Known about the structure:
By secondary structure, this protein is of the alpha/beta class. The chain has 2 domains: 8-259 and 457-483, Rossmann fold (3-Layer(aba) Sandwich); 273-451, Glycogen Phosphorylase B (Rossmann fold, 3-Layer(aba) Sandwich), CATH 3.40.50. 44% of the residues lie in helices and 14% in strands. The chain has 19 helices and 15 strands. The protein has helices at residues 18-32, 44-52, 60-69, 93-102, 104-118, 135-142, 154-161, 163-168, 208-221, 237-243, 273-281, 301-314, 339-343, 355-360, 373-381, 395-405, 421-433, 437-454, 460-483, and strands spanning 8-13, 37-43, 73-79, 123-129, 145-150, 181-182, 191-192, 226-229, 249-251, 288-292, 317-321, 347-350, 364-369, 386-388, 409-411. The strands form 3 sheets. A 7-stranded parallel β-sheet has the order 3-2-1-4-5-8-9, sandwiched between helices. Strands 12-11-10-13-14-15 form a 6-stranded parallel β-sheet, sandwiched between helices. A hairpin with an 8-residue loop joins strand 6 and strand 7. Helix 4 (93-102) runs parallel beside helix 9 (208-221) and helix 12 packs across helix 17. The longest helix is centred in the last third of the chain and has 24 residues, at 460-483. It is globular and about 65 Å long.
Amino acid sequence: MAEIHRKPHAIMISVPYQGHINPFLNLALKIASNGFSITFVHFEFVHHRLSKAHHCNKTHVDIFSQARESGLEIRYTTISDGFPLEYDRNANFEEYWGWILREFPARVDEFVGKIIQSDPYLVHFLVADTVFSWPATIAEKYNLVNVSLWTQPALVFTLGYHLDLLRENGHFPCKDNIDEEVNYVPGIKSISTRDLISVVKESEQGQYSMVESVHMGFDQVKKADFILHNTVYELEAETLSALNKYQPNYAIGPVNFFKNLPSYTVSKSLWSESDCTQWLESKPPSSVLYVSFGSFVLTSRQVIEEIAYGLLLSEVNFIWVVREGILSSGDTNIMPDGYEDEVKDKGLIIPWCNQIRVLSNPAIGGFLTHNGWNSTIESMWCGVPMICYPFLYDQPTNRKLVVDDWKCGISLCDGTISVDRKEVAEKIKSFMSGAASKSLRQEANKVKTILHHALEVDGSSQGYFDRFIKDLKEKIHSTITSIE
Length: 484
């Protein structure tokens, strides 16, 4: 049989949210650096938003241009989700995800078909977000090797993977006000129902499209050839070992910190980095609490006010990144009137910052976070302990890992979203300078060491990535051979 020399080409499509896009971006660069060709696909509205964002120094187009200049084969393109650019996808979340669930797959089918027809001398394979409801169907139609990227911890993945077990035991949908132990899921010793992912909760069943999408996504991922996890084996060994009994799973994280990739600058803030750094450098080591609840958090003005005045009462120095759209009302005037004047030199309120640079600053002593997985990973990477205040999706489960399993954080409140400013103040004081603060920092540094070593040449994540590349090449080769 003649030797096959067709070059492997990845078609990569991420869910259009920043917590998913960033890992996909870094994975694209990592795969390309291993000799593969890449087509990185953005939703059109994401491309438009990133291109016009006034704080961006380099768009993803610029990043991939720089990568090509360094010798990597990366193409960049966009796909329409079927809505006009000005359509408010967040405000119409249920309608939007209903469309993505039922109508968008046909667009992806046509899109992938055209890519394959445009360059038949490449051997194409698919790298898609686990959350999507279509990857296995499209991979089967076009005979593509199917790689699924899960951007959250393996604990969250295995809960979704075993939705059938949750349903059999009366925990899908799960009543919101019960506290029961779930101890029947393979790879999980025990988890409280209060820490389950929000899509299985009874109160979330109104978001029918998202719940159905997650359900279909996990049905589809059971047909994937490879599953990549943005986590570290040592942190979730039991869960990952159990998953490997079903399919090939590779813990390759933290993906956003892959080594030996082309360097690029992601963003600059309206509030200059120099101003932010100067303010931090005026504060003693470990004296500043960094506060950020991500870019897609829905909560009430009352909660924001209680946290805001709790920070003031604590008398702790803080930086708070306040982004538009954080309130469920859609109101962009987020902070209490006159609050910034009251803060004075105790706090710095900014619209954006380079989170890694801030968390790496010696003045930072803790992170008050919603426990989005990207933020959680970044905090652990920098050895910064967390005060956890999860809202929805994977965040309650991430909190469980941080507080109960890895012991590098505490909860702001127990099992509720409501907060009281006096309790917030006391919790922050204790966290920053109380008796438990030293232990938290020690545990945070242990986790930091695990994450950093995982990406070294002899680390577990680098080893799993190398194994994935080897297995992927063998699978692609066997696929081509079977066709020819």
